[in-house]
Amino acid sequence: MAEHTPQRAASRLETWRKRYALVSDILTPQRLGLLAAVALLGVLGAFGGWQAVEGVDAPEVPLAKVGEPVDVAPFEITVRRARHFDELRPALYPTDGYRYLVVSLDVTSHNKTPVAGLDFKPAITVDAEGLQTVGDRPEAPRLLRGVDALDARSFQPGLTTSTIVVWQQADSTPVPAEVTVTLSAQTWRQAVMDGGWRWSDPAPVARVTLPVEALEAP
After folding, report:
1. Torsions phi, psi for 177 (to 5 deg)
2. Of the candidates 5, 23, 77, 100, which lies 20 to 30 Å from 115 by C-alpha distance?
3. Which of 67-77 are b and which e, b meaning 16 or more Cβ less than 10 Å from the residue's Cβ?
4. DSSP code at position 92
């Protein structure tokens, strides 16, 4: 049996150094780390995510009441009411095959700088059948300002904005008697892929169940 002498080990190490030097401009330590992270996420996804790997059940999301302010970083959100209707001109026009399902909120931003409406959308989901989809996922809701029904493009620091969250629901689906809204807090962190800082990783912090009312025509 061949002996593993220090000279032989040093020779192997030098061989690997030479091989890595050929690709060092491509396989930088940063890229190797990114590839390892992507591979880990792929493995976790195949086995159902962190909770499945760790064998830990998802914690139960606490219930909140209608009209109760809830801390949902970086916002404070108060759920007011849910309604359904076919149109609300001039903001929402009739769409064949769909009705509108909306939830009214008061949103206060605790961030020191404006938060884009796009970053708010992951903070709220609704448990309802027949929602319009993109691929195999419900389409992101549209955000309107309650004061004038214009698009809510951003939330200003310290200001409370009356907000209408709009989904489209197939009119072949019965109007739900009630819906459950899930509010999710987010984390300000640096993205792995591009290094940019953004609100991400929504995690449920509260659920609110409320009746769905019809909006009477004027």
Report:
1. -70, -30
2. 100
3. eeebebbbbeb
4. B
The 10s digit of each residue's pLDDT in 124-148 is 999 999 999 988 888 999 999 999 9
Whether the CB-CB separation of 189 and 197 falls below 8 Å is answered with yes
Cis preceding-peptide flag for 176 (omega within 30 of 0):
no
For the stretch 12-51, what's the b/e string if a residue is b when 16 or more beta carbons lie within 10 angstroms of its beta carbon? eeeeeeeeeeeeeeeeeeeeeeeeeeeeeeeeeeeeeeee
Q: Report how far residue 196's alpha carbon sits from residue 99's, in angstroms, rounded to the nearest whole number.
A: 37
CB contact at 8 A, 88 and 215: yes
Question: With the CA atoms of 40, 42, 45 and 49 taken in that order, what torsion angle do they form, in degrees rounded to the nearest 10?
Answer: 10
- Tell me the two tokens of residue 200: 């991400």
- In this structure, the strands spanning 197-214 and 160-170 are unpaired
